[in-house]
């Protein structure tokens, strides 16, 4: 566990991190990207960290990859690449920097390391896990293979390197249906997200899909009744759900898709009022780019994603600690599963 008291002392000895309205004004171009969701007084607290991190990134030849669920100060303030798991995985193969700072959860950093074994991949907090990734091990994959001999294993990218290495191919919520449809044979094993698997089963009825019993602790909190209540209270409300939600929740939505699909849908359709049935930071991050859209709904936050803070990012770049390592033999097999997904996604999109 990180010793935040010592970290704070050390950081304050090297950087001026005092809240500053003057600096906030100076950096108002960055604040303009999150103006709707962050008062200037809060920006005055974050701006010194953003300045220090952006300077350190140059010194270390580092890039920051940030998931759509990061807080606005990370997403808009320090990131070089933002996106969903698929986009970050692909971009991880293209970066030329020596250091990647992964602002997301641990399996994402492992994926970056798997795809970039020669680079240093820093994880600002090693305890930023994921309920899905923690729900299954390589033994679980072996169990499923024994139950369904010959069936290909499609594992969500929200898995550890060991689980990826034991799988035939990976998928993300953006490409899961296409990947499953492209598999040979009648039966496909999907791990570890039972809700994603059941949502894909509806889209790919020609396959018999069997699944592992994992779930995302954020998306499984939403209920179909919540969505009906919000619609009753706000006639005309559009509802967009992430496919990690249970199928009856997805069925109540006007549209379902990955975080990248959600972002595209909102930009394209420009609804007056929308409820994003996903992690709460997503709405905050796309709010300023969609000024005419009012975002409604409960704020379910991912406790793992929220572990990544500006302070921890600054510490990882300052101390160059938190490097993610993956056993080379495991990495090689995991890379095959991730690369097959990337290649197949590109072929299907062409
Ligand atoms: S939102 Fe769900 S799937 Fe994403 S990191 Fe958090 S627990 Fe895992």
From TrEMBL:
InterPro entries linked to this entry: NadA (IPR003473), NadA_sf (IPR036094), Quinolinate_synth_type2 (IPR023066)
EC number of the protein: 2.5.1.72
SUPFAM superfamilies to which the protein is assigned, alphabetical: NadA-like
Cofactor note text: Binds 1 [4Fe-4S] cluster per subunit.
Annotated residues for binding of [4Fe-4S] cluster: 130, 216, 302
Annotated metabolic or biological route of this protein: Cofactor biosynthesis; NAD(+) biosynthesis; quinolinate from iminoaspartate: step 1/1
Taxonomy, superkingdom: Bacteria
Broad class of the protein's primary localization: cytoplasm
Entry keywords, A to Z: 4Fe-4S, Cytoplasm, Iron, Iron-sulfur, Metal-binding, Pyridine nucleotide biosynthesis, Transferase
GO biological process: 'de novo' NAD+ biosynthetic process from L-aspartate
Location in the cell: Cytoplasm
GO molecular function per UniProt: 4 iron, 4 sulfur cluster binding; metal ion binding; quinolinate synthetase A activity
Pfam families: NadA
Protein name as annotated: Quinolinate synthase
Organism per entry: Paracoccus sulfuroxidans
């Amino acid at each position: 566990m990180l010793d935040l008291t010592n970290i704070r002392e050390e950081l304050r000895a090297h950087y001026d991190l005092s809240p500053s309205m003057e600096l906030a004004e100076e950096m108002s171009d960055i604040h303009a990207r999150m103006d709707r969701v962050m008062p200037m007084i809060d920006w005055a607290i974050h701006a010194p960290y953003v300045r220090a991190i952006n300077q350190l990134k140059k010194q270390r030849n580092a890039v920051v990859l940030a998931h759509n669920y990061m807080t606005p100060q990370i997403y808009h303030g320090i990131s070089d690449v933002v996106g969903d798991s698929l986009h970050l995985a692909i971009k991880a193969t293209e970066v030329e920097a020596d250091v990647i700072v992964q602002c997301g959860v641990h399996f994402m950093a492992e994926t970056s390391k798997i795809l970039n074994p020669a680079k240093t991949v820093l994880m600002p907090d090693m305890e930023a896990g994921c309920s899905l990734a923690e729900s299954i091990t390589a033994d679980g994959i072996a169990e499923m293979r024994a139950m369904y001999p010959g069936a290909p294993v499609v594992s969500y990218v929200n898995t550890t390197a060991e689980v990826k290495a034991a799988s035939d191919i990976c998928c993300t919520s953006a490409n899961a249906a296409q990947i499953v449809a492209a598999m040979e044979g009648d039966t496909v094993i999907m791990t570890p997200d039972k809700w994603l698997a059941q949502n894909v089963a509806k889209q790919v009825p020609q396959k018999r899909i069997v699944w592992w019993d994992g779930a995302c602790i954020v998306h499984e909190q939403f209920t179909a009744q919540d969505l009906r209540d919000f619609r009753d209270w706000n006639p005309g409300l559009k509802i967009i759900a992430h496919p990690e939600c249970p199928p009856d929740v997805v069925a109540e939505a006007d549209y379902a898709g990955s975080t990248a699909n959600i972002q595209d849908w909102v930009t394209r359709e420009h609804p007056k009022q929308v409820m994003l049935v996903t992690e709460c930071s997503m709405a905050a991050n796309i709010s300023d780019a969609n000024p005419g859209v009012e975002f409604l709904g409960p704020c379910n936050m991912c406790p793992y994603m929220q572990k990544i803070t500006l302070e921890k990012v600054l510490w990882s770049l300052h101390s160059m600690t938190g490097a993610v390592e993956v056993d080379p033999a495991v990495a090689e097999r995991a890379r095959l599963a991730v690369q097959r997904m990337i290649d197949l996604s590109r072929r299907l999109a062409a």
